[in-house]
Amino acid sequence: MNFHFLTIFPEMIDNYASESIIKRASESGAISVKTWNIRDYSKNKHKKVDDYPYGGGSGMVMTAQPIYDAYKDMLEREGIEKPHVIYMSPKGRVFSQGVAIELAKHSDIVFLCGHYEGVDQRIIDMIVDDEISIGDYVLTGGELPALVVMDAVSRMIPGVLGSEDSHMDESFMEGMLEYPHYTRPAQFMGRCVPDVLLSGDHKKIEEWRKDRSHEITSKRRPDLLEK
Fold this sequence. Notes:
Layout: E1 2-7, H1 10-17, H2 20-28, E2 32-37, E3 50-51, E4 61-62, H3 64-78, E5 84-94, H4 97-103, E6 108-112, H5 121-127, E7 130-133, H6 143-154, E8 187-188, E9 191-192, H7 195-198, H8 202-220, H9 222-225
Parallel strand pairs: 1-2, 1-6, 5-6, 5-7
Antiparallel strand pairs: 3-4, 8-9
Helix pairs in contact: 3-5
């Protein structure tokens, strides 16, 4: 899986990609993460990438030219014919585990990270395949939500996690929230690990985990049980 970011803040992406699971996955070749600085493609002598909106209004809008040129250069340099291009936007469909599984089927994903009041609609119409939101709130730019999507999608890629079964035990994978986890010591400040987890009876442990998952989901996210 190859992730490409069209952004005016490549350092935000590079810093995140240089740590933890994403770093190890990149080093192993399971994924690749590349950034393309939109500002480098601006034809403005001051390297501006934004302008005032037609029709008036507050804020600035990212211009189409540098985004389009960055996109075309990326396609040429990487030898990609048609990647799946995602624009991170509060107007997009809401991201979920199901969407992460769907996106993991692509070989190349491009994130268009907007700023200011957004990007010129014409560039969205020209190159974007998918608009995605990570929730009903407004953020400063598209980099943070794009990283959220990349992280979740990466976990679906073979070779990214230490165990091939790790992602199957996580919240939402079976439509419910995950069960509680415990580790050593068996007792901490008077609080003990549930006896069933120490029993070695795998069938009872599995039943306990399913019961706890259902209990937690019914209390905190009953909407998941209605789907």
